[in-house]
Protein backbone atom coordinates (compact mmCIF):
# COMPACT_ATOMS: atom_id res chain seq x y z
CA UNK A 1 0.00 0.00 0.00
CA UNK A 2 1.28 3.42 -0.89
CA UNK A 3 0.43 6.31 1.40
CA UNK A 4 -0.90 9.51 -0.16
CA UNK A 5 1.34 12.40 0.70
CA UNK A 6 -1.02 15.33 0.61
CA UNK A 7 1.74 17.48 -0.90
CA UNK A 8 0.55 17.43 -4.51
CA UNK A 9 -1.22 20.53 -5.72
CA UNK A 10 -4.40 19.24 -7.47
CA UNK A 11 -4.10 21.97 -10.09
CA UNK A 12 -0.92 20.32 -11.27
CA UNK A 13 -2.89 17.45 -12.77
CA UNK A 14 -4.71 19.89 -15.05
CA UNK A 15 -1.52 20.86 -16.86
CA UNK A 16 -2.56 19.15 -20.09
CA UNK A 17 0.58 20.13 -21.93
CA UNK A 18 2.33 17.40 -19.98
CA UNK A 19 0.27 14.71 -21.75
CA UNK A 20 0.17 13.52 -25.31
CA UNK A 21 -3.12 12.80 -27.03
CA UNK A 22 -2.60 9.11 -26.23
CA UNK A 23 -2.37 9.81 -22.51
CA UNK A 24 1.34 9.05 -22.34
CA UNK A 25 3.39 11.50 -20.28
CA UNK A 26 5.74 13.77 -22.14
CA UNK A 27 9.27 14.22 -20.92
CA UNK A 28 8.61 17.73 -19.70
CA UNK A 29 8.92 17.64 -15.95
CA UNK A 30 7.04 19.23 -13.12
CA UNK A 31 8.86 21.74 -10.98
CA UNK A 32 8.42 23.09 -7.51
CA UNK A 33 5.86 25.75 -8.40
CA UNK A 34 3.38 23.07 -9.46
CA UNK A 35 4.18 20.25 -7.08
CA UNK A 36 5.77 20.19 -3.66
CA UNK A 37 8.36 17.43 -3.48
CA UNK A 38 9.15 16.15 -0.02
CA UNK A 39 10.33 12.61 -0.43
CA UNK A 40 10.80 9.25 1.12
CA UNK A 41 9.18 5.85 0.69
CA UNK A 42 6.72 3.75 2.62
CA UNK A 43 7.59 0.13 1.87
CA UNK A 44 10.46 -2.24 2.59
CA UNK A 45 13.44 -1.91 2.39
CA UNK A 46 12.95 1.47 4.03
CA UNK A 47 14.20 2.31 7.52
CA UNK A 48 11.63 1.14 10.02
CA UNK A 49 9.82 2.96 12.81
CA UNK A 50 12.30 3.72 15.56
CA UNK A 51 15.15 4.45 13.15
CA UNK A 52 16.65 7.96 13.12
CA UNK A 53 14.41 10.29 11.12
CA UNK A 54 14.88 13.57 9.24
CA UNK A 55 12.31 16.04 7.98
CA UNK A 56 11.72 15.22 4.27
CA UNK A 57 13.72 17.51 2.00
CA UNK A 58 11.93 19.60 -0.61
CA UNK A 59 13.23 19.31 -4.18
CA UNK A 60 14.03 22.99 -4.33
CA UNK A 61 17.28 23.82 -6.17
CA UNK A 62 18.05 26.91 -4.10
CA UNK A 63 17.45 25.07 -0.84
CA UNK A 64 19.61 22.18 -2.03
CA UNK A 65 22.35 24.51 -3.20
CA UNK A 66 22.43 26.21 0.19
CA UNK A 67 22.64 22.81 1.88
CA UNK A 68 25.54 21.43 -0.18
CA UNK A 69 27.43 24.72 0.21
CA UNK A 70 26.94 24.59 3.97
CA UNK A 71 28.25 21.02 4.00
CA UNK A 72 31.36 21.98 2.05
CA UNK A 73 30.76 22.01 -1.71
CA UNK A 74 32.45 24.91 -3.50
CA UNK A 75 30.23 27.82 -4.64
CA UNK A 76 31.44 26.96 -8.15
CA UNK A 77 28.66 24.33 -8.23
CA UNK A 78 24.92 24.65 -7.72
CA UNK A 79 21.70 22.69 -8.24
CA UNK A 80 19.51 23.48 -11.26
CA UNK A 81 15.87 22.72 -12.10
CA UNK A 82 15.55 20.39 -15.09
CA UNK A 83 12.35 21.13 -17.02
CA UNK A 84 12.65 18.44 -19.71
CA UNK A 85 14.62 15.29 -20.35
CA UNK A 86 14.40 15.53 -24.14
CA UNK A 87 13.89 19.14 -25.20
CA UNK A 88 17.31 20.52 -26.28
CA UNK A 89 16.21 24.11 -25.76
CA UNK A 90 15.17 23.52 -22.15
CA UNK A 91 18.25 21.41 -21.43
CA UNK A 92 20.44 24.22 -22.80
CA UNK A 93 19.65 26.35 -19.74
CA UNK A 94 21.79 24.03 -17.60
CA UNK A 95 25.58 24.60 -17.60
CA UNK A 96 27.46 21.63 -19.00
CA UNK A 97 28.83 19.24 -18.16
CA UNK A 98 26.13 18.25 -15.68
CA UNK A 99 27.87 16.26 -12.94
CA UNK A 100 24.85 14.51 -11.40
CA UNK A 101 21.10 14.23 -11.90
CA UNK A 102 18.59 13.74 -9.09
CA UNK A 103 15.28 12.26 -10.24
CA UNK A 104 12.22 12.56 -8.02
CA UNK A 105 9.62 9.87 -8.69
CA UNK A 106 6.58 8.10 -7.19
CA UNK A 107 7.21 4.81 -5.43
CA UNK A 108 4.46 3.02 -7.35
CA UNK A 109 3.48 -0.62 -7.65
CA UNK A 110 5.15 -0.70 -11.08
CA UNK A 111 8.40 0.67 -9.67
CA UNK A 112 8.39 -1.68 -6.67
CA UNK A 113 7.81 -4.67 -8.94
CA UNK A 114 10.79 -3.59 -11.06
CA UNK A 115 12.99 -2.96 -8.02
CA UNK A 116 12.20 -6.29 -6.38
CA UNK A 117 12.83 -8.18 -9.62
CA UNK A 118 16.26 -6.55 -10.03
CA UNK A 119 17.20 -6.85 -6.38
CA UNK A 120 16.18 -10.52 -6.19
CA UNK A 121 19.26 -11.44 -8.24
CA UNK A 122 21.64 -8.86 -6.77
CA UNK A 123 24.06 -9.39 -3.91
CA UNK A 124 24.29 -7.03 -0.98
CA UNK A 125 27.03 -4.51 -1.73
CA UNK A 126 29.99 -4.83 0.63
CA UNK A 127 32.80 -3.04 -1.21
CA UNK A 128 34.98 -0.39 0.38
CA UNK A 129 38.26 1.36 -0.24
CA UNK A 130 39.85 3.43 -2.99
CA UNK A 131 39.10 0.83 -5.68
CA UNK A 132 35.35 1.52 -5.61
CA UNK A 133 34.12 3.13 -8.85
CA UNK A 134 31.54 5.10 -6.84
CA UNK A 135 30.76 5.89 -3.22
CA UNK A 136 27.36 4.46 -2.23
CA UNK A 137 25.41 5.32 0.91
CA UNK A 138 22.78 2.91 2.24
CA UNK A 139 19.78 4.78 3.66
CA UNK A 140 19.09 3.97 7.30
CA UNK A 141 17.59 7.35 8.25
CA UNK A 142 13.86 7.68 7.63
CA UNK A 143 12.84 10.38 5.14
CA UNK A 144 16.47 11.13 4.27
CA UNK A 145 16.33 10.10 0.60
CA UNK A 146 16.82 13.72 -0.50
CA UNK A 147 19.98 13.96 1.57
CA UNK A 148 21.17 10.59 0.28
CA UNK A 149 20.66 11.81 -3.28
CA UNK A 150 22.72 14.92 -2.61
CA UNK A 151 25.48 12.92 -0.93
CA UNK A 152 25.65 10.61 -3.93
CA UNK A 153 25.71 13.60 -6.29
CA UNK A 154 28.57 15.47 -4.63
CA UNK A 155 30.65 12.44 -3.55
CA UNK A 156 31.19 10.94 -6.99
CA UNK A 157 32.86 11.72 -10.29
CA UNK A 158 34.31 15.20 -10.92
CA UNK A 159 31.99 16.75 -8.30
CA UNK A 160 34.15 15.29 -5.58
CA UNK A 161 36.96 17.64 -6.58
CA UNK A 162 34.76 20.57 -5.53
CA UNK A 163 34.52 19.52 -1.87
CA UNK A 164 36.45 21.97 0.27
CA UNK A 165 39.21 20.81 2.58
CA UNK A 166 38.22 20.59 6.23
CA UNK A 167 34.46 20.72 5.57
CA UNK A 168 31.81 18.35 6.93
CA UNK A 169 31.70 16.51 3.59
CA UNK A 170 35.48 16.29 3.39
CA UNK A 171 35.59 14.72 6.83
CA UNK A 172 32.75 12.30 6.02
CA UNK A 173 34.38 11.10 2.83
CA UNK A 174 37.81 10.63 4.36
CA UNK A 175 36.31 8.60 7.19
CA UNK A 176 34.02 6.62 4.86
CA UNK A 177 36.50 5.33 2.28
CA UNK A 178 37.61 2.34 4.34
CA UNK A 179 34.18 1.60 5.86
CA UNK A 180 31.67 -0.94 4.58
CA UNK A 181 28.10 0.26 3.78
CA UNK A 182 26.72 -0.53 7.24
CA UNK A 183 29.56 1.36 8.92
CA UNK A 184 29.10 4.29 6.55
CA UNK A 185 25.43 4.48 7.46
CA UNK A 186 26.25 4.56 11.15
CA UNK A 187 28.74 7.35 10.47
CA UNK A 188 26.01 9.43 8.83
CA UNK A 189 23.68 8.79 11.76
CA UNK A 190 26.38 9.91 14.18
CA UNK A 191 27.42 13.14 12.43
CA UNK A 192 25.63 16.03 14.23
CA UNK A 193 26.76 18.65 11.70
CA UNK A 194 25.00 16.73 8.93
CA UNK A 195 21.76 16.45 10.89
CA UNK A 196 21.84 20.14 11.82
CA UNK A 197 22.45 21.34 8.27
CA UNK A 198 19.70 19.09 6.93
CA UNK A 199 17.19 20.19 9.58
CA UNK A 200 17.83 23.85 8.83
CA UNK A 201 17.43 23.31 5.08
CA UNK A 202 14.30 21.16 5.36
CA UNK A 203 12.59 23.78 7.53
CA UNK A 204 12.78 26.66 5.03
CA UNK A 205 11.26 25.25 1.83
CA UNK A 206 8.39 26.71 -0.18
CA UNK A 207 5.88 24.39 1.49
CA UNK A 208 5.09 23.51 5.09
CA UNK A 209 7.47 20.84 6.32
CA UNK A 210 5.93 17.50 7.33
CA UNK A 211 6.95 15.63 10.45
CA UNK A 212 10.15 13.61 10.36
CA UNK A 213 8.17 10.41 11.03
CA UNK A 214 5.59 10.97 8.27
CA UNK A 215 5.26 8.48 5.43
CA UNK A 216 5.88 10.16 2.07
CA UNK A 217 5.54 8.30 -1.22
CA UNK A 218 7.96 10.17 -3.49
CA UNK A 219 11.63 9.27 -3.60
CA UNK A 220 15.01 10.48 -4.90
CA UNK A 221 17.46 8.53 -7.03
CA UNK A 222 20.79 9.92 -8.26
CA UNK A 223 22.59 9.32 -11.56
CA UNK A 224 26.32 10.02 -11.77
CA UNK A 225 29.14 9.42 -14.25
CA UNK A 226 32.26 7.93 -12.72
CA UNK A 227 35.79 8.90 -13.69
CA UNK A 228 35.99 5.97 -16.14
CA UNK A 229 32.78 6.84 -17.96
CA UNK A 230 30.32 4.51 -16.24
CA UNK A 231 26.78 5.79 -15.63
CA UNK A 232 25.49 4.71 -12.22
CA UNK A 233 22.10 4.68 -10.51
CA UNK A 234 22.60 5.40 -6.82
CA UNK A 235 19.72 4.78 -4.42
CA UNK A 236 20.02 4.07 -0.71
CA UNK A 237 16.98 1.77 -0.87
CA UNK A 238 18.70 -0.67 -3.24
CA UNK A 239 21.23 -3.41 -2.44
CA UNK A 240 24.06 -1.31 -3.81
CA UNK A 241 25.09 0.97 -6.70
CA UNK A 242 23.81 -0.11 -10.13
CA UNK A 243 25.86 0.43 -13.27
CA UNK A 244 23.52 1.19 -16.17
CA UNK A 245 26.10 1.48 -18.95
CA UNK A 246 29.08 3.45 -20.24
CA UNK A 247 29.33 6.96 -21.67
CA UNK A 248 31.80 8.57 -24.03
CA UNK A 249 34.15 11.25 -22.73
CA UNK A 250 31.97 14.03 -24.17
CA UNK A 251 28.71 12.63 -22.72
CA UNK A 252 27.42 13.79 -19.33
CA UNK A 253 24.43 12.70 -17.21
CA UNK A 254 22.10 14.86 -19.34
CA UNK A 255 23.32 13.40 -22.63
CA UNK A 256 20.83 11.51 -24.76
CA UNK A 257 22.49 8.18 -23.98
CA UNK A 258 22.66 8.75 -20.22
CA UNK A 259 19.02 9.78 -20.04
CA UNK A 260 17.91 6.78 -22.09
CA UNK A 261 19.86 4.42 -19.81
CA UNK A 262 18.34 5.80 -16.63
CA UNK A 263 15.73 8.52 -16.04
CA UNK A 264 13.64 7.95 -19.16
CA UNK A 265 13.11 4.33 -18.17
CA UNK A 266 11.43 5.53 -14.98
CA UNK A 267 8.99 7.67 -16.94
CA UNK A 268 8.25 4.84 -19.37
CA UNK A 269 7.37 2.49 -16.49
CA UNK A 270 4.97 4.90 -14.84
CA UNK A 271 2.63 5.63 -17.74
CA UNK A 272 0.38 8.55 -16.82
CA UNK A 273 1.80 9.46 -13.40
CA UNK A 274 3.04 13.04 -13.53
CA UNK A 275 4.76 13.21 -10.16
CA UNK A 276 8.25 13.46 -11.60
CA UNK A 277 10.84 16.18 -11.20
CA UNK A 278 14.57 16.46 -11.74
CA UNK A 279 17.42 18.57 -10.41
CA UNK A 280 20.95 18.64 -11.82
CA UNK A 281 24.31 19.42 -10.22
CA UNK A 282 26.35 21.65 -12.53
CA UNK A 283 28.38 24.83 -12.66
CA UNK A 284 27.16 27.93 -10.89
CA UNK A 285 25.43 30.70 -12.84
CA UNK A 286 26.73 33.35 -10.44
UniProtKB/TrEMBL annotation:
Q: Which family does it belong to?
A: Belongs to the peptidase C12 family.
Output the GO biological process annotations, alphabetical, semicolon-separated.
protein deubiquitination; ubiquitin-dependent protein catabolic process
Q: Which reaction does it catalyse?
A: Thiol-dependent hydrolysis of ester, thioester, amide, peptide and isopeptide bonds formed by the C-terminal Gly of ubiquitin (a 76-residue protein attached to proteins as an intracellular targeting signal)
Q: Specify the taxonomic lineage.
A: Eukaryota, Fungi, Dikarya, Ascomycota, Pezizomycotina
What Pfam family is a match, any one?
Peptidase_C12
The residues covered by the UCH catalytic domain are: 53-283
Q: What is the designated name of this protein? A: Ubiquitin carboxyl-terminal hydrolase
Query: What GO molecular functions are on record for this protein?
Result: cysteine-type deubiquitinase activity
Task: List the keywords (alphabetical).
Answer: Hydrolase, Protease, Thiol protease, Ubl conjugation pathway
Recorded hits in InterPro entries, A to Z, give: Papain-like_cys_pep_sf (IPR038765), Peptidase_C12_UCH (IPR001578), Peptidase_C12_UCH_sf (IPR036959), UCH_AS (IPR057254)
Q: Which SUPFAM superfamilies match?
A: Cysteine proteinases
Q: Where is this site: Transition state stabilizer?
A: 139
The record's listing under Gene3D superfamilies reads: Peptidase C12, ubiquitin carboxyl-terminal hydrolase (3.40.532.10)
Listed GO cellular component terms?
cytoplasm
Q: Give the E.C. number(s).
A: 3.4.19.12
Site feature location: Important for enzyme activity? 235
